[in-house]
Write a structure and sequence with these properties.
heterodimer; A: 336 residues; alpha/beta; Rossmann fold; two-stranded antiparallel ribbon; B: 331 residues; seven-stranded mixed β-sheet; five-stranded mixed β-sheet; 12 helices; 35% helix
């Protein structure tokens, strides 16, 4: 069990008061549900029930939940290939997510997109992206559209550390800055771009330092601390909503699983993974905090995990009972 | 009878954009130097004075960013018209166009649409050499989810651009630098030339010539020349390359028994191969009296030297020569 210092409790005192017990419990529940979804996803893959690949974000739940909860109804989301958590935290139905993962007609994308492309346009979730940095220039267009339509929406675009080394990142951050666009650029730094460690891919201490080059504020937070992420993204979103423009938020986190199903993880040690799991697990940390401040009891904490598993059990049952897409409809959706 | 109003190809495009922007505030322009400068070829000249910098948006030199900005805006209710200064530079936007714009709708199960148009001038003939003279339209023809439009006249330029902006799909709109100053009848009306409607632009009985963009102009000139010898070319302009309306082409070949496809892009892997294949696989096959031939750009980068550049792509003389051979059976 991770012990939290009184400092941490002190630091979040006001935020805990503001959010209130229900919101805090919901955030912890979401983290559990995401983890249960992904653990089951992996299991389904191992059982040969899933045909494609998947990118698991186990260990990164705090970033997804902290960021999504900092946004408001009507805001936009663009995210990346390791995106189950973001999507679920944005409010997606686990049944339809699991159905998409299993390639069923009842899935969010009618089984055409799969794990890497889940979108729910109705809730302004503009989708996960299989191309590293692919969503970042699109966020500029969303920001531009918000500005031209004069709404108070904000676009949250989430990408990994690897994406910050794509040219598209530089073009997009510059454009967002010169046009003062309402965008939160959230770099989810899980410390490896597939096998490439950030220390080898960057010659700077923090990815958020790059913001300065575009005249944007940049901040780095502990991505395994859900309230730290919530706080940073809330501030960035509020700034964007006030018409003051974009922010680059870097959330430092850690992926427990391999890059995808083929990863033998030769580039890091088991000790390193264990070190993160034992000392920085986001669910354990948030659970401890909520226990210490008396928002939840031990029993409630255990029930949350059980509830998450039940939600996912139901999602799997729904998906298994769902029809596969009809081959006769294969041409659907290419053109509007 | 009043004289028919004439506009240049560039003016026709500009009038179309002005009219669309007047009637629909979701339409905006975005690209490099399209504001005060008026665009590298002057197509957007003066529009910034009418609509302001908020709707005629000058961008940094960021072609991936321009494409992405169009996609994101289109996904969220706007109708952007992007400009890529030279078609060559669209190579810097390819990821956004091919992997995002074209696929978003399908990947999301048909639940999103990307109503954007990306205009770009292609083609050689200006002495701009290998990196400013490309004809890359067939790259896009190969991508499901994109539409590809290539007008050859001022009339079609205006009507096809309007149809493209009103369409709910991403449209690659390929203009030609040498066509910008060509003149033709253009009504002031807000008319549409529907996408995917191939047009027979000159009727003839001896040989079907399928040509795109500036090659339509050259094929028509070649037809004039050959008419003096009693050879009648039927010239066909697909106008929309994808999705392609091939019925008029097949009908024409059934009538003439001969076909020549002419485009500026290099022959290898070019659009002409698709036309040839469609004809060969159709009922027109039984009517063929000669091999189907292509006349296209040489498989080289566009050279700088004026004479080399001229010989790198089909010209009126080469079309005349090739057409004559096909009709006379001298192949």
């Amino acid at each position: 069990m991770i012990q939290l210092s009184q400092d941490v409790i002190q630091r979040y005192h006001d935020l805990i008061e503001t959010l209130g017990p229900e919101a805090l419990k919901m955030m912890l529940q979401e983290m559990h549900t995401i983890r249960a979804f992904e653990e089951r996803a992996e299991q389904l893959y191992m059982q040969g029930k899933v045909h494609g690949t998947m990118h698991l974000s186990i260990g990164q739940e705090a970033t997804a939940v902290g960021a999504a909860n900092a946004m408001q109804e009507g805001d936009y989301l663009l995210n990346h290939h390791r995106g189950h958590g973001h999507c679920m935290a944005w409010g997606a139905d686990p049944n339809r997510m699991m159905a998409e993962f299993m390639g069923k007609e009842t899935g969010y994308c009618r089984g055409r997109g799969g794990s890497m492309h889940i979108a729910d346009v109705e809730s302004n979730n503009l989708g996960a992206n299989g191309i590293v940095a692919g969503g970042i220039p699109i966020a500029v267009g969303v920001g531009l559209s918000i500005k031209m339509r004069r709404t108070s929406q904000v676009c949250l675009v989430i990408f990994g550390d690897g994406a910050a080394n794509e040219g598209a990142f530089h073009e997009a951050l510059n454009m967002a800055s010169i046009w003062t666009l309402p965008i939160v650029f959230l770099c989810e730094n899980n410390q490896y771009a597939m096998s490439m460690p950030v220390e080898k891919a960057f010659n700077i201490e923090k990815i958020s330092q790059r913001a300065a080059a575009y005249g944007l504020p940049g901040v780095t937070v502990d991505g395994n601390d859900v309230l730290a992420v919530y706080s940073a993204v809330s501030q960035a979103a509020a700034r964007a909503r006030r018409g003051e423009g974009a922010t680059l938020v870097e959330a430092k986190t850690y992926r427990y699983k391999g890059h995808s199903k083929s990863d033998k993880q030769a580039y890091r040690s088991r000790e390193e993974v264990r070190y993160w799991q034992e000392n920085f697990d986001p669910i354990m940390r948030f659970t401890n905090l909520l226990l210490m401040v008396g928002v939840i009891t031990e029993t409630e904490a255990a029930q949350m995990r059980e509830r998450a598993v039940a939600i996912i059990d139901e999602a799997v049952a729904f998906s298994e009972a769902s029809p596969a897409p009809n081959v006769a409809d294969i041409m659907d959706g290419v053109y509007a | 009878m009043p004289e028919l109003r004439e506009l240049t190809y560039a003016e026709a495009l500009r009038e179309c954009m002005r009219q669309l922007m007047e009637e629909d505030e979701r339409v905006f322009l975005i690209g490099e130097d399209i504001g005060v400068y008026g665009g590298a070829f002057g197509v957007t000249a003066g529009l910034i004075d009418l609509f302001g910098a908020e709707r005629v948006i000058d961008t940094p030199i960021s072609e991936a960013g321009i494409a992405g900005a169009c996609i994101g805006a289109a996904l969220t209710g706007m109708r952007p018209i992007g400009e890529i200064q030279f078609m060559d530079f669209v190579t810097l936007s390819m990821e956004q166009l091919v992997l995002q714009a074209a696929k978003v709708r399908f990947m999301f199960g048909g639940k999103a649409s990307v109503p954007m148009v990306l205009r770009m001038p292609g083609g050689s003939g200006t002495g701009a050499a290998a990196q400013h003279s490309e004809s890359l339209e067939n790259w896009f023809v190969h991508v499901p989810g994109l539409k590809v439009v290539m007008p050859s006249t001022p009339y079609d330029a205006k009507g096809l651009l309007r149809a493209s902006v009103l369409d709910n799909n991403p449209v690659i709109f390929v203009e030609h630098k040498l066509l910008y100053k060509t003149k033709g009848h253009v009504p002031e009306d807000r008319y549409i030339v529907p996408l995917s409607q191939t047009k027979v632009v000159r009727e003839g009985k001896h040989l079907t010539v399928v040509a795109t963009s500036i090659m339509v102009v050259r094929a028509l000139q070649a037809a004039e020349e050959l008419a003096k010898e009693g050879i009648e070319l039927e010239v066909i302009d697909p106008r929309t390359l994808k999705p392609l309306d091939d019925a008029p082409i097949i009908e024409s070949v059934k009538k003439t028994g001969r076909a020549l496809v002419v485009h500026e892009a290099v022959e290898m892997g070019g659009f002409g191969g698709e036309i040839v294949a469609r004809i060969a696989a159709s009922e027109a096959f039984d009517y063929l009296e000669a091999p189907i031939r292509r006349l296209a750009g040489l498989d080289i980068p566009i050279p700088y030297n004026r004479e080399l550049e001229y010989h790198a792509v089909p010209q009126v003389e080469s079309i005349v020569r090739e057409a004559r051979k096909l009709v006379r059976g001298e192949y």
